[in-house]
Amino acid sequence: MSILMLTARDSSSDKVIGLDAGADDYVVKPFDLAELTARIRAMGRRGKETLPPVLEWQQLRLDPNNCKVTYRQVELHLTPKEYKILELFLRNKQRVFSRSMILDHLWSYEEAPTEEAVKVHIKDLRKKLRAANAPADFIETVYGLGYRLKQI
Fold it and tell me: CB-based contacts of 105: which residues, under 8 Å, 6+ apart?
């Protein structure tokens, strides 16, 4: 499915955030109706997108095509934010993410919670991974820096 963002936010950083969040096109209001319909037609002409690959780390699998996450064949039932945090880690293996970086990647400016919310989501995600028999430190804390997936 193609996504076109239609918004009044016109700064360069807003456009980057929107496109990085998954939008295929970004149109700022006020807009010309003929241009908007041409952009929609152009998006429709683009070939069928290939499905995103399954992301894997050790025994963990995240399938973006059906939003299913398993660890050693055990399905994890995650909240949308837990899923996004795990996806962020899997798409950036071995990168350390601070709480503020996670906030910047996954929350909008309007709904941005405190860093404590990230800590709670990480704790809950670790608990669900442990329930599926993942190591307790599967998501590793890099003290003073943030979190990352632990390398064996």
Answer: 88, 97
